Amino acid sequence: MTPQTTDSTTAKPDTDEPLVIDTAGMSPEQRVAMEVAESARGAADSRDSFAGRMLSGRYEPARLQPFPEQNDADRAIGDDLVARVSTLLAEKLDAEEVDRTRTIPAEILDGLRDIGVLKMKVPAEYGGLGVSQVNYNRVIQAIASHCSSTAVLVSAHQSIGVPQPLKMFGTDEQKQRFLPRIAAGALTAFALTEPEVGSDPAQLATTAVPTEDGRHYIINGEKLWTTNGPIAQLLVVMAKTPSKVYRGRERRQITAFIVDTDTPGVETTHRCDFLGLRAIQNGVLRFTDVRVPAENVLWGPGLGLKLALQTLNTGRLTLPAACAGAAKQCLSIMRSWGNERVQWGRAVGRHEAGMTKIAYVAATTFAMEAVAWLTSHWADEQRDIRIEAAMAKLFCSEACWTVVDTALQMRGGRGYERADSLAARGEKPYPLERMLRDCRINTIIEGTSDIMRLFLAREALDPHLKRAAGVIRPGAETGERIRAGLGAVAHYAVWYPRQILGGRNPLRYRGEGALARHHRFIDRTSHRLAAAMLHAMGRHQAGLEKRQELLGRMMDIGTELFAMAAACAYARADTIVRNADDEGERLADLFCRQARTRIDEHFRAMRSRDGRAGNALAKRVLTGGFRWLEEGIIPCVAAEPVGREARSAASEGHRNGTG
Ligand SMILES: Cc1cc2nc3c(=O)[nH]c(=O)nc-3n(C[C@H](O)[C@H](O)[C@H](O)COP(=O)(O)OP(=O)(O)OC[C@H]3O[C@@H](n4cnc5c(N)ncnc54)[C@H](O)[C@@H]3O)c2cc1C
Fold first, then answer.
1. 0.85 exceeded by the pTM?
2. Most exposed: 35, 287, 615, 651, by fewest CB within 10 Å?
3. Where do the domains of the chain lie?
4. Is the pLDDT of residue 333 over 80?
5. What are the catalytic residues?
6. How far is the CA of 449 from the centre of ligand 1 (A)?
């Protein structure tokens, strides 16, 4: 098994495997983006991952049992931390004021420092707490349930900021140099995004040029939306270093640096303001001739993007825990409000529309927790969880938005009112308005939902692509192609009938009681999904990469199946059974019923031709069609000509000598 987290002694540089994706029909920019993304993917073998195998039609629920749990010592550490943080925030942090003033009080930061929250991820040998991922996420969950801005400050500092990649990829000397500083209170940040570089990091424009003596790099460029950037003492900065030639072709190099913000030339040019998370210190950072010692290169030249992606693999586990925290808060609000508010002679929670909402939120919160704790435990066990982490992020961030929206709807007009306004007129200050604004970002940061789906699709198709690559690889000898072709035929002759016939034993999983039918559904559907992926590859071949709706729906199905499996296993966890009797089973059962409905809908949509009709319509919009539909509004920005209008305006300008 390839470990997810690794230290400098086990970290291996890029293996430079040949591409298994046909880039022949791509534009030069697309090809570069694909090459950079592929070389950063990492050589880990996802075939050993639970979800990776499930996507290939192998559902192995025994791997989730017993559901991993904390040992007593680890639990005691987490209990203590969560209790202290909760007391501090409940007594001293007014989250509404934080939101209104865009400021997290210094007293709170000092309090968090005193408890050790800002050094949870720093190993004990360097003066930190070195807590497990589970305890780290338990603390994040508690903070996020109260104040998302504070949770994001803690998380950007440690989930993706300097401690995480430094632990994974730093040398002993680098750890000695930086980790004690972080343990002593230095805040950190992660700077990858740029104005022109969001989801596609291949186009990175920030440069790091080595000095002639090779002892320094000079960094120039601009980073956008760096959370904690304006207040951090240390940054991880991804920059372009001189290209290298691999197999006769120039390959872009992205390198990660630790940058001290005291270095001349580092400045914050703007503090960004957002819909939610209003108190985070997030800024545009400018680097002008910033001289960074070569010893500050993390992992090695050219490994920066791989480092960023691997950091995010573990880093994005924090979001599911934070989302579960928000969902629990919603459930708590809905329980109270559902009983308190009486309309039409009945408490709103007891009207069927209210019960539907409460049941959905309870069951979904349970599944979110199941996914969050399962992946956190697996991270502690150093498993390869790239696929599960992406599914956890995708599932929990999307579910969180729906959950908070559902809770807000049940509060009616009060859901839309700010908590301090509610308090001012003597009502309970449930903060759903702020929670809705705060949680909207979760489907965007640390990989958007669209990108998560594409990432998952790439991983899911990898075994098939590798088999096909031997047959279609340009330059392969005929004998090599024949051997690869025969190997593929032999493999699929066994594999394919297994997908078509598999998972149909009605007696399987009998010991699972009320959840047995859900296990059978997951088993059957994982085969169906695996076959659907192969069919899609056969039908669309190289064009499959562009069929994002189809790929996205298949990955949504895989993600729902993973959440169902996690929920069923969590229902049998010792702590759940001991403390909640059969309530875990009831929650898992309802979640699975609702997930099955969503999965059926995805399969139905995959068969329909709506997507193609939608694509044609969208292209028409983008080229200036349906303009009349926008009439009657006051435009928010000056309208620019698009498509045909733009072309005729350009040729008009040309004729007039102005173009
Ligand atoms: C509050 C906040 C905090 C942030 N913190 C940090 C931070 O600390 N460090 C940091 O480096 N960055 C940070 N970011 C940046 C964040 O990670 C990016 O916003 C995110 O990666 C998406 O990039 P983008 O916004 O440029 O979207 P774009 O990449 O421009 O994408 C726009 C839309 O197009 C979609 N899209 C893009 N490519 C494709 C494709 N190939 N196929 C289909 N759809 C596609 C996206 O899903 C998205 O919906 C932060 C952003 C915000 C708003």
1. yes
2. 651
3. 614-655
4. yes
5. 446
6. 10
